[in-house]
Design a protein that fits this description.
mainly alpha; 2 domains; binds zinc ion
Length: about 230
Amino acid sequence: MKETIYTIPVNEAFDSADDGCPFCALYKKLEANELDLILGASMMEPDIRIETNKKGFCGTHLDVMFTMKNRLGLGLMFESHLGTLADRLKTGGLLAKDASGKCPDNIAALEKSCYVCDRIEFSLSKMINTAIILWLREPEFRKKLAARKMFCLPHYRTLLQSAKTTISKKDFAEFVKELDRIQSAYLAELTEDVSWFCKKFDYRYDKEPWKNSKDAVERTMKYLKGVMR
Ligand SMILES: [Zn+2]
Ligand SMILES: [Zn+2]
């Protein structure tokens, strides 16, 4: 296939010895890169400032930025963001037709919107498409995908949804079968490990080994929600 900027990172994630979800690994890289940029190099760029003012940040990314120990960077961005909020938060006076105006709608829209999430989503959806095309065209990549241990549920959903709209019905059926094999095996393994983890709290199992269950709860979290911080 035509080399795209996404081919290399996608291949790297699928080559990785880490047996977690490869798209979660890509997400984390994209996120770290985006956060470094907006609190660093591109912080003062006017067109980025316009976007961050408009979209704001989700709670998760505010928390992550808060831990990044760049209070001045965050302060400067907030100064600009807060400056644009006044107009959107106006509730209208007593004589206004609708006393609340558009304020709650505007706040609700802001709650759902995040500059960082949007930037990550843009690249990640292209990476997911790249993985599907690579699987379709490159036997080597097909082997890499077959060897993956799991995909988290949110990325499994995105993979299926993207593939459905990108590839032929016949290829899609084969793709689904392959993913189903991987996901079913992982779910069975995880279920067994969680079950053994719970048993280990029963005194009758005290002398038994932990087997592969010590991190079963953590692995289930990763499976259910994807990216963990
Ligand atoms: Zn994932
Ligand atoms: Zn976000």
